[in-house]
Amino acid sequence: MSEPATVLPFLIRPLLGVSLLMAASCGGEEPAAEGSVVAEAAAPTVEVDLDALEGFPPLATTFPGPDGPASAELVELGRALFQSTGLSADGSVSCASCHDPDEGGDDGRALSVGPGGATSRRNAPSLWNVASYATFGWDGRAATLEGFTALHLLDDWATGFADEEALVGAAGGERSLAEIAAALGAYQRTLVRRSRWDRFLGGEPSALGDPERRGFNSFLEAGCAMCHTGPSFGGDDFQQLGMAEEWPDLEDSGRMLVTGDSSDEGMFRTAPLRGLYETAPYGHAGQYPDLGEMVRLMAQHQLGVELSPQETADIVTWLNSL
Ligand code: HEC
Ligand code: HEC
User: Fold this and answer.
1) Is the CB of 255 under 6 A from ligand 2?
2) Which residue's CA is the nearest one to ligand 1's atom 13?
């Protein structure tokens, strides 16, 4: 699944015993052109703990579905369905209205607005790299992308359909709910997007500058990686909101709404952290317009750590490279 080129730097690392920083300065980079300040400023000097990188394996390049790789036809059908307002009862919204891949994969709102002005309880997540997660929805309502999509197609606030029959009829009556969800799943699995972080992991040290390196180090030092790990820095497990200090104004019971188990009250999926630079506002109800504020609250309420304004700003700069 992973590309050899991406893995290689880590395999050879113990042999070489050098840091990515050294690789950056001895890597035979082009000397700065005379009078160029840009190239000079780009050479990073802050070291990154390479052992810590093992918690963040590279993002896979492809995400086959439950039945293996999808055909091009199925992906195309999924793309067409994703863009179609026919998948809402009053023909007013499509999946793309709330998850526009050209606008960061979300709708830029705190809460979404569906057919007839219905409002969602939660913030619409970006669908970029969605196939890399192990559980779906803020409360992990489904364990597969197709399973989540099938449930979501019948969310009255999202599509407005009263039941499965109404949805299947609106989609032409030829495909079952599971088949529609499979096509939409196949398309969503193609929404894979790489970032500068991936270039860094792939052995390109200069892909991250000093503020970003400082930000990553602060992220590790604060303990954020206790929860946010893996190729997408989350999307894989559930955590209590307010581990260290009660989360402010928490109104949503989170995972308890799925399991009915009172010990899941206030548990939410560890949010994935890729592409946040274009998915404001933040939090499950989009309560926080500012990414720095979200980072500061995470440190305080999840870890009992007070970040300095500089540390917060560096973490935000690093997050923006993901
Ligand atoms: C009216 C806005 C709206 C529409 C239309 C909509 N969604 Fe969503 N979507 C949301 C919201 C809000 C959530 C978060 C729900 C939750 O976690 O409780 C969500 C969650 C998701 C997730 C889970 C993502 C993750 O990070 O786990 C997927 C997948 C998804 N939607 C796909 C779709 C598809 C496919 C369609 C079209 C059939 C669609 N959505 C239509 C608002 C919308
Ligand atoms: C104890 C586990 C835990 C720790 C530690 C933790 N987080 Fe989180 N993080 C979560 C959970 C759970 C969510 C989902 C929040 C929600 O549902 O509103 C989240 C959400 C976020 C979000 C919002 C993403 C979005 O799409 O809205 C950001 C940003 C974030 N965390 C950054 C951090 C940073 C930076 C740190 C360290 C200072 C950190 N987190 C520490 C569990 C944790």
Assistant:
1) no
2) 124
